[in-house]
Amino acid sequence: MTPIPVVLDVDTGIDDACALLLAALHPGLDLRGVTCVGGNAPLADVVRNTLTVLDAAGRAEVPVAAGARRPLLEESVDARHVHGSDGMADLGLAASTRSPQDRPAVELLRELADSGAGSGSPVTLVPLAPMTNIALFARLHPDAFGRLGRVVFMGGGAHVSNATAAAEFNVFHDPEATAIVLDACAEHGVPVTMYGLDVFYDPVVTVADGQALRDLGTPVGTLAGGLIDFACRRFDSDTATIGDAGAVATLLRPDVVRTQRLPVRVELSGTWTRGRTIVDLRDWAGDMAHDPHGLAPGVVDVALEIDGAAIADLWLRTVRGEL
Length: 323
Ligand code: BDR
Ligand code: CA
Fold this sequence. Notes:
Radius of gyration: 18 Å
CATH class: Alpha Beta
Bound molecules: beta-D-ribofuranose, calcium ion
Number of helices: 14
Structural class: alpha/beta
Number of domains: 1
Helix content: 40-55%
CATH topology: Inosine-uridine Nucleoside N-ribohydrolase, Chain A
Strand content: 15-25%
């Protein structure tokens, strides 16, 4: 099977690290580049963590570029209460000797979108963070954006939220960016999948899985096991979600996720609902035709159900080096 060309946009982040490991190590994926954005932690921490993960995976050749420090309109609100003070589980790992590219994330995105399309294998862009970089890319380089093969993003939810009672963290962090990206996908005909909170928490691994990984004594085992151990302790639980890694895993196992093509809008105002993804689950044409708002132009494949065990197993086998 020809590996799927992928580019990840991350705010590493414990679960972004899990996603990077999968994308870097699975032979079914061709990781072409990684762009970083402020989110779970400030941008400098995100870049450092991302380089650390790629070094551990033996993928120091993967280009990394730094992007936006802050959302388009909102102030930054990090999630270090979830991910640790360094943004990636405070494992005390040595910092990489590498540096990110000396060009901004949008330029790396442009080059990778163009080169993928030019070689006949358009890249799949996987945003796993607030979509600030991707919105800037869509605005600055619309032609290149239109050459993407597909966008699969972690964000939002049809029924579930976390950052507020209404909104998921990545969309809450930069609602305008998400709205711009959904509009751009509609405008350019780029298929888009939303891997949101309805499925995000289902693929889980256990404390014992984490210990077994650490016992391997390899750089990947030490990192992956340390991430699991931290997440379990932080939430006082025997299990931890692999989070963003699930979105990457669905590229390899589309057969274990149920999606439905639905109109989606992002709430940009609202006293209590800013950043909510409004997923239109109505099925009666009568109501829809009479809706004064009209239907959302952004039609998205929304992930609604997943076989979490199959996804977690794929991740575990990959980081154990069993593939
Ligand atoms: C998302 O928010 C971040 O904390 C995670 O990395 C994930 O991308 C979940 O809401
Ligand atoms: Ca993330």
